[in-house]
Amino acid sequence: MTGSLVVVGTGPGKADLMTPATRAALNRATDLVGYGPYLDRVPAIRADQCRHASDNRVELDRARHALELAAAGRQVVVVSGGDPGVFAMAAAVFEAVEAGDPAWRTLDIKVEPGVTAMLAAAAEVGAPLGGDFCAISLSDNLKGWTTIERRLAAAAEGDFVIALYNPASKARPHQLGQAFDLLRKLKDAATPVLFVRAAGTAEAKVVATTLGAADASVADMRTLVIIGASTTRQVGRWIYTPRSERRT
Ligand code: SAH
Fold first, then answer.
1. Is the pTM of this model over 0.90?
2. Closest CA to 216 of 232, 227, 231
3. Which one of 224, 225, 226, 227 would you pick to mutate in the ligand 1 pocket, going by the greatest count of ligand atoms within 8 A of its CB?
C-alpha cells in the first residue's frame, strides 16, 4: 500500500470554518497526528482511525513520526490549528524531510490551506487588513528577540498593518509590552490596536484601544493582536483599513 501525508489546519475553532477539503482529508485518514488540543477539535470520524496526540513543543518529533507512518503505507493527516502553513506544522514537516531519510522526498505530501487566526480576527472587527499587512510571531522559541525587534521596526517604517501571533504565554509574559514600547516610539499614539481573543469561535472577544493606551496584559495565548497602519480607522462599530492610501 502507498502511504500519504496531508497537513491540514482546523481553522480558528468553529466547525464551519474548517474547509470541506480538510474535512475530506480527515475522512480518508488512517492516522491523525497532532498536538492534543488540536486533535480534540476533530470529531471522531471512524473507530479504526489511530490518534497520535503529542505535546506542543515536540513539533519536529511529531513531523518525523508522521513521515515514518506515511513511509510505512499509512494515510496520515497532520493536524494544526488555523492554517497549517502559518507558524505551524507544514514547515516542520518539510524541515524534517530536509534533515531526514532521503526516501521521504518522494512521499505523497500535500498541504491543505485553512482559515488562519489573523483572518478570523480581522473579520470579527471589520476589515483592518484591507491594506498592506504583515504577520509576526512574537515567540522567541525559534528566533532571537533582536530579529523580532528588527522586523517590528521595519513593519512600522513600512506603515504595514501588523498582525501579532503568539503575543504572550506564561513563559513569555513581557514581550508584548516591549513590542508596544518599541512601536510607540515609531507610530502615532492614536493608532488603533485590537486584541481579538478566540476569534472565529462562539467565545470571541474583542478589545479595541489605541497604541498609546494598549495594555499588554489583555493578551494571552488565544489572542491575536492587530496594530493599525496610519490609515486604519473606525466607522460606526467597525475598524477598517482603506485600500487606498489617499485620505478622503
Ligand atoms: N496555525 C495557526 C497559528 C499558530 S500560532 C493559525 O493559522 O491560526 C498560535 C497563535 O495563533 C496563538 O498564540 C494566537 O496568537 C493565534 N490564534 C490561534 N487561534 C486563534 C483564535 N481563534 N483567535 C485568536 N488568535 C488565535
1. yes
2. 227
3. 224
Residues 163-219: pLDDT tens digits? 999 999 888 889 999 999 999 999 999 999 999 999 999 999 999 999 999 999 999
- For residue 201, count other CB atoms closer than 10 A to its CB: 16
Give the relative orientation of helices 175-184 and 145-157 as an angle to the nearest 10 degrees.
Answer: 30
Quote the CA–CA distance of 130 and 116 in Å, as a whole number: 16
All three cell numbers of 60: 519536529
Any atom of ligand 1 within 6 Å of the Cβ of 130: no
Residue type, 122: A
Strand 126-127 with 238-240, pairing: parallel
pLDDT digits (tens, 9 = 90+) for 80-130: 999 999 999 999 999 999 999 999 999 999 999 999 999 999 999 999 999
How many whole angstroms separate alpha carbon 187 and alpha carbon 203? 31
Q: Which three cell numbers, joined as nine digits, stand for 35?
A: 498536538
Q: Can you name the residues that pair with 35 across neighbouring β-strands?
A: 54
Q: Is 85 in the pocket of ligand 1 (CB under 6 A)?
A: no
Nearest ligand 1 atom, CA 84: 1
